[in-house]
Amino acid sequence: MQAEKVKMDQLAEEVKQAGHTILTMMQHFAIPPGTVLTGEIPGEMAYEVWADEQDNIHIRKTGDLAVEADNPNIIVIECSGW
Length: 82
Fold this sequence. Notes:
Number of strands: 4
Structural class: alpha+beta
């Protein structure tokens, strides 16, 4: 049980750091709160991500993607309308 708690704590910290990185990128590019960005993790999933007025990051999976052989470690983010 201790080992699982350590794993969960690690995952929680990684999610927190990822959210901080996303928020920093959005602020750098002056993307206002509420702007929904779409992205893909090739071969895994499509998603939407946005920040609210309190700088909380929200992520919603929008679909599954077929596995791709080329560039499996590239994450694609698209933004429009801001």
